[in-house]
Amino acid sequence: MTANPLFGLNRHIRLPGPLALDGGQSLAPVEIAYESYGELNADRSNAILICHALTMDQHVASPHPITGKPGWWMDMVGPGKPIDTDRFCVICPNVIGSCMGSSGPSTMAPDGGHWGMRFPVITIRDMVRAQAMLLDQMGIERLYAVIGGSMGGMLTLSWAATYPDRVQAAMIIASTARHSAQNIAFHEVGRQAIMADPQWRGGDYYADGQSPDAGLAVARMAAHITYMSEQGLTEKFGRQLQNRDAKTFGFDADFQIESYLRHQGISFTDRFDANSYLYITRAMDYWDLAEDHGGVLAHAFTGTRTRFCLVSFDTDWLYPTAESKVIVHALNAAGAPVSFVELTSPFGHDAFLMDTPGLDRVIDGFVKGGGQ
């Protein structure tokens, strides 16, 4: 294998030329922050692209530089793991619009000021186009596999539909082909919480460092509920009180679940940007793959030779199994090779990030069969 100086390192790359966006605007310059693990082989045919979820980032298998916590998919990515970095070169880019180094509202615009709300509204397909430009720059013409969960699954589907000749295999975990009215509604609650925070100031809060943390924390709390299941909440918290023997008859966090959500909200503000939350949730809400193909989802995959695997979880009510089956049926109608599995887990939507029995075996089997 060729030497790869990028192993386990967080790198930035500036993409040439403007990036044409679905909204009719263009973005320039475009910077992508990414991490890579493992080495590219001589013909660059062993690259696996991992697409992250809404609040995740490129630190898939290395400690987060702000929180110090382990990479969000450490159990799946690494030497001898299901996504084996001894065999594959694994690349995980931070999506544009986010806040961990790729171009977004918190980065600098050409005029020397922060983009803020001047940053153009983007789509899932725009994120994918930026990633394709990154791979072009790296000299990677075809991917052994693209793998993503949640929003990452949307990017994976968009990759397969937009660049079918560049994707050998695609794994979509706990995702959907379009954002539902219910999910748009949850996102709108979060956006309004941010914009109602007096510190938001139309998105121009970078100069003095006074961010709309209260609004972002509430947005995170509301979203985090959708990532869990009723079963998981009941088993973990029930109606247990938080460090007290009796109710206070006040508005402190009497219950453990209240304390947990407050902690999730506050800690989230340490590592995420409020404007990025607005932009990425909007991109997810605009996601409707069939809409881009005459309203027929199967048309997105016409003639594809990509091998697909869909994974869902029985307690996921954010993107339930029925959503995955819609994709499977469309792939069947298009004549695409596809497998599907529903796994049992108490963790709800977040099951793809947790120690869910069977998920490692499914991913391992998918990766090992990617070249067939």
From TrEMBL:
It catalyses: L-homoserine + acetyl-CoA = O-acetyl-L-homoserine + CoA. Homodimer. Substrate binds at R220, D350. It comes from Sphingomonas lacunae. Keywords: Acyltransferase, Amino-acid biosynthesis, Cytoplasm, Methionine biosynthesis, Transferase. The gene is metXA. Pathway: Amino-acid biosynthesis; L-methionine biosynthesis via de novo pathway; O-acetyl-L-homoserine from L-homoserine: step 1/1. Transfers an acetyl group from acetyl-CoA to L-homoserine, forming acetyl-L-homoserine. Its EC number is 2.3.1.31. It is an enzyme of class 2 (transferase). InterPro entries: AB_hydrolase_1, AB_hydrolase_fold, HAT_MetX-like. One of its GO terms (cellular component) is cytoplasm. This is Homoserine O-acetyltransferase. The active site is at S150, D316, H349. Residues 47-353 form the AB hydrolase-1 domain. GO terms for molecular function: homoserine O-acetyltransferase activity. It holds the Pfam family Abhydrolase_1. It is found in: Cytoplasm.
